[in-house]
Amino acid sequence: MIEENNKSTKIFIFVYLFLSILAAILAFSLVFFHTGNNKNAQAKQPTLIVEKEIQIGVILPMSGSLSNWGRTIKDGIDLALEKTQKPFKIHLQDSGCDPQKAKLAAKQLLEQEHVKIIIGPACVTEVAAIADIVNQQHAIMFSTGLLDNSVFGLTSNIINLSTEISTEVDFILKHLTLNEKSHIAVVSSANYFGKEYTRSIKELAPKYGIDVVLVDETPIDAIDFSSEIKDIRGKKIDALFIQQSEVGTIEFLKQLKKSPYHFDIYTSSGIENQSMLEGYQDLLEGVLFTAPYNVNEGSEEKIALEKSYNRLTDAKRVPSATTFAVYDGILLLDSALKKCSEMDVPCIKQEFVNLGKHAGMSGEMLFHPDGSNTRPFGIKQIHNGFFEWKVQDITNQNITP
User: What's the total number of domains in the chain?
Assistant: First the structure.
């Protein structure tokens, strides 16, 4: 009996050990199989590459008297970012069109946030103010407003997305000559823009045989123009060019139009502002001004972009010429960054220069090695509450200075 029990115990132990070993082998096989499959699965999964964001600094007048303009420029940036292939991260700084604020903004962007690309500033005095720090940090700025030619002597790290005051003045003088107007008076504010317009007119007028018979410079905040108007009425002129602030322009026209006059009134493209028309349509009636000519105006693509703008802003703002200039600039930058790193400033600039004559949603542009930009201008006139083209492209009109 004892022997039978011992035999049964031995059989039980043998079976137990056999089953334990078998279970261990199966468990090991399952773990090995599972691990192998995981490794294969991981090997087969594509690696997701997240492209590094391009850091872009933006300096615009988001407050102050030019805040509406600043917002339309920012709108142009936002519209373009919907179309770019590269990922961009925007670092926005408000300068209020103040040179000192612009300088602080540039220091923050370039020294603290380490960006190498700046969109802006919008005002020429700001561009001059930050030129040194842009040079020191080996960065590049894409200016968005009218510049004077001297800026390009301060830095080579610049591309002007707008154009130059001298280019605009040259077009308006050509128009005057074509319309047989040879005696002009100038009433300009003593601010940077006023001084540069006056300087350019005096410098370029002889080229077209135009006599500048009167130049009156007024204080920046002038609202009494009785002395200037008396001077104008004492001269024989066939055209008057005024360059004043919005308030100054309105006050000047109020005082001038109290009595009849027999000459055309011209000003710069800055007057194309819907808010001015809404309150002073009668005063502005008949005023002529230079305006960038857009070869793509009325095209299906431009109309679609304008609809996108209305969607973006809930139709609360009217786009400016600068809106589309900056829109084009961002898309061209996006294209340049396919070949250049964001740190390679010379490469980025050269890509713009290499474009030659290029047509975008803002019209034709031609970037020069110094960073300046030639754009064609025409003449618009304020008529019945609208900004209407009088001459769409002066470039195509023949004249021998």
Answer: 2
The alpha carbon of 201 is separated from its chain's Cα centroid by a whole number of angstroms, namely: 26
Q: What is the pLDDT of residues 296-319, one digit of tens each?
A: 988 999 999 999 999 988 877 888
* C-alpha to C-alpha distance for 274 and 294, rounded to whole angstroms: 19
DSSP string for residues in 90-150 = EEEEE-TT-HHHHHHHHHIIIIIS--SEEE---SHHHHHHHHHHHHHTT-EEEE-S-B-GG
Say whether both 257 and 279 belong to one domain. Answer: yes
Coil, strand or helix at 294: coil
Where in the sequence is the domain holding 202, given as residue range(s)? 166-294+378-396
Q: What angle do CA 163, 169, 171 make, to 5 degrees?
A: 90
**Span 319-333, pLDDT tens digits:** 888 999 999 999 999
- The three-state secondary structure class of 160 is strand
Are 317 and 289 in a shared domain?
no
Burial class (CB in 10 A: 0-12, 13-18, 19+), 387: middle
Neighbours of 43 (CB within 10 A): 7
User: What CATH number does the domain containing 81 carry?
Assistant: 3.40.50.2300
Helix (H) / strand (E) element for 277: namely: helix 274-284
